[in-house]
């Protein structure tokens, strides 16, 4: 039987209450930021966009678009990370053409989210600068 760091049987079943779910979700957030360098880069882009938005005194609808763009990129990065881990777990780092397809398509979803964020940023900040 596997034991965790405290010598207890690790949890593999469902969470028993909301706080336990929240604790695990926050743990997942921490693990993702600790292990994925791409996420830290995205945090910097998000902070720059927010700082520039404050400087430009954006309209609240523009803020909605910027917040949407930021969260879409983070969601895509998180799901890409999940896909990478799942594939590695399944094929144990052995080459498989389907593993390549899954990882490449998953990476493409991050690319698409980044293009969306760039378009939103260009429209919102372009409008703020030239008007
Ligand atoms: N088991 C595998 N079988 C086939 N191809 C693989 C496998 N693992 C990785 N690859 C190829 O290597 C690429 C990079 O792998 P992976 O996504 O794990 O690295 P990464 O550096 O974390 O990627 P990202 O920059 O998207 O975060 C994949 O897109 C895929 O083309």
From TrEMBL:
UniProt xrefs under Gene3D superfamilies: 1.10.287.3610
CDD domains: UDPK_IM_like
GO molecular function per UniProt: kinase activity
Topology class, membrane: Multi-pass membrane protein
Presence of keyword Nucleotide-binding: yes
Organism domain of life: Bacteria
Compartments reported by the entry: Cell membrane
Primary location group: membrane
TM helices/strands, residue ranges: 43-60, 66-87, 108-130
Keywords, sorted A to Z: ATP-binding, Cell membrane, Kinase, Lipid biosynthesis, Lipid metabolism, Membrane, Nucleotide-binding, Phospholipid biosynthesis, Phospholipid metabolism, Transferase, Transmembrane, Transmembrane helix
Keyword Amino-acid biosynthesis in record: no
Family classification: Belongs to the bacterial diacylglycerol kinase family.
PANTHER family, per the entry: DIACYLGLYCEROL KINASE
UniProt-recorded name of the protein: UDP kinase
Species this chain originates from: Latilactobacillus curvatus (Lactobacillus curvatus)
